Amino acid sequence: MKNKQKIAILGAGESGVGTAILAKKQGFEVFVSDFGKAKVKYKKALNDLGVEWEEGGHNEARILEADIVMKSPGIPEKAPMVQKLVEKGIPVISEIEFASKFTSAKIIGITGSNGKTTTTKWVYHILKNAGLAVGMAGNVGDSFAKQVAEENFDWYVLELSSFQLDGIIEFRPHIAVLTNITPDHLDRYDYKIENYIESKFRITRNQTEDDFFIYDADDELTLAWLGKYQIKAQKLPFSLDTKQKMGAYLEDNNIKIITPNSQFIMPKSSLALEGKHNTKNAMAASTVAQLLRIRKETIRASMENFQGVEHRLEKVLKINNVLYINDSKATNTNATYYALDSMESETVWIVGGVDKGNNYAELLPLVNEKVKAIICLGVDNAKIFEAFGNCVEVMMETQSMTEAVQMAYKLAEKGNTVLLSPACASFDLFENYEERGREFKNAVRNL
Does CATH number 3.40.50.720 belong to domain 6-93? Predict the structure, then answer.
C-alpha cells in the first residue's frame, strides 16, 4: 500500500466513523462527507480523531480525488455521488470489506431476510460462554472497523445486510449463514427479487472448500439459486421438514446436528425461544458452534438461557389478561408471517409503515384464522386496506403509536393478544424500528 493513500468516507454514522478510526490508524489520509446532518457524538469523535469532515452536502472534487471510497450501507447505489465515483473507476466498498483487510481474526458472517439478528446474537452468546475472544459487529454492536482498530479478537460474528454485501470485493467469511430469503428491500433492487437474491449470495462468493455455508433447506428461493449455481464452500443445510445427511434437522422433537467430525442432539423443548423460526435460528447457531468444536454442555446451556432480541416478539405487559407483544423488527411480510403463526389467541394486529414492495397474499390465511381487528399505523395504508378489507370486521387507521395502542386497548378482550408486527419499514413516522418499538412499549406502559 503506497504511503498516505486517500480514503473518502460517505456517511458520518456508526460505520463511517468506525472506518475513519481504522483508516487513520492504518495511515490513510481520511475525509468524511455526510450529505445530511451528522449526530453530535459522531462529530465529536471525528474532531477528537483530527479528521476532516463535512455535512449538509458533498465536496465532489475532494471526494473524486480519493483512491478508495467507503459508502455507508444506507446510501443507495443510485445516489449521484456514488454514480460519479463508479464512472471514474474509483472503488466504492463497504465498511465490512475495508475492515476485513486489517484483521487476521476468523469471521462468521450471517445474513438473511429474517432471523439474522437473533442468529448473530445467539452465536455470539455461545462463543462468549465458551470463553472465546469474540467480537460482534455489522448491523449490531459497535462498528466492525472500530473494533478491528481497537480490539484484538480471534473471532468476529457479523450480521450482514444485503446493502453491506453489495460493497464487498474480497471479503470471505470462514463460516457463512443464510437464514432465509423472502422479498425485502425490493425498492433498492429495481423491484427484482433475483437482484436481491444475488446480493444475499455474495456472502459465499469468495469462500473456498475450507469454508462452510449454512442455509435453510426448506427455503424455496435459496434452493432454487443453489440448483443453478455452484458454490465452493462445504454445505450444511438445516431443516424442520427433511432429514439431512449433513447439517441440522428435527427428529422426534429433537434437534440433530451432524457436522464433518461430530454429532449433537438436544430436545427442541429446551430452547429459550419459541416458534418455528426460532427453532431454525437455533439450528443455524448450534451448527456454527459444532463446527468450532465448542463443548456440547456449553451449547446446550447457551440454547437454554439465551434472552432473545429486543423488538422481536418481545412480550411487553399483560393488562386485563391481554398480552401486548412488540415485534417492531418485523419490517417485511415474512417476519410478520412468523409472528402471526406463533399467536395462540385472537389477535388485534397493528400493521403498516413504508411498504418495500410487499405481497400481503401470503398473510391472508393467518389473518383469517387469527386476527380479529387490524389497526393501520402509517402515512399510506391503502395497500393494507385493499389486502385485508374483507378479512376482518374491524379495520382502523391512525398515524400515532399512542392512538394505535389506545385503539387496541378498546378492541381487545380478555384472553386476546395485541401484536405490533408492522411488515413495513418505519421511516414514515419513526427514525427506525427501534424507536417504533420503544414508543409502542411506552404507550402500553402508559395505558
Answer: yes
184-207: b (≥16 Cβ within 10 Å) or e: bbbebbeeeeeebbbbbbbbbbbb
Judge if 6-93 and 314-445 fold alike in CATH terms.
no
Q: Which fold has domain 97-305?
A: UDP-N-acetylmuramoyl-L-alanine:D-glutamate ligase (3.40.1190)
Mean pLDDT, 10 residues at a time, over the chain (447 residues)? 81 95 96 93 94 93 96 89 94 96 97 92 96 94 94 97 91 97 67 83 96 96 93 96 94 93 90 87 96 95 88 92 95 90 94 85 94 92 91 92 96 97 88 94 96
Q: How far apart are CA 179 and CA 248, in angstroms?
A: 13
Residue whose C-alpha is closest to residue 302's, from 316, 326, 281: 281
Check residue 3 and give its pLDDT: 60
The grid coordinates of residue 402 equal 399512542
The domain ranges of the chain are 6-93, 97-305, 314-445
Known binding residue 352? Answer is no
**Looking at the DSSP assignment, which residues form a beta bridge with residue 446?**
none
- Which CATH entry fits the domain spanning 314-445: 3.30.420.140, 3.40.720.10, 3.30.70.1140, 3.90.190.20? 3.90.190.20
This prediction has a pTM of 0.81
280 annotated among ligand-binding-site residues: no
CB atoms closer than 10 angstroms to residue 224: 13
- Can you name the residues that pair with 250 across neighbouring β-strands? 255
The helix or strand, by DSSP H or E, that contains position 31, with its residue range, turns out to be strand 29-34
Tell whether residue 192 is among the known ligand binding residues. Answer: no
State the pLDDT at residue 196: 86
The answer to whether 115 is annotated as binding is yes
Q: How far is 325 from 418, CA to CA, in rounded Å?
A: 6
pLDDT at 303: 92
To the question of whether residue 222 is assigned a binding role by annotation, the answer is no
In residues, how long is the chain? 447
Greatest Cα pair distance, the chain, in angstroms, is: 69
Residue 243 counted as an annotated binding residue: no
In this structure, what C-alpha cell is assigned to residue 270?
Answer: 429446551
Helix (H) or strand (E) holding 264: strand 262-267
118 is in an annotated binding site: yes
C-alpha cell at 228: 443453478
pLDDT of residue 193: 79
Cα gap 42→39, rounded to integer Å: 5
Q: How far apart are CA 43 and CA 40, in angstroms?
A: 5
Rounded to whole angstroms, how far apart are CA atoms 436 and 340?
Answer: 19
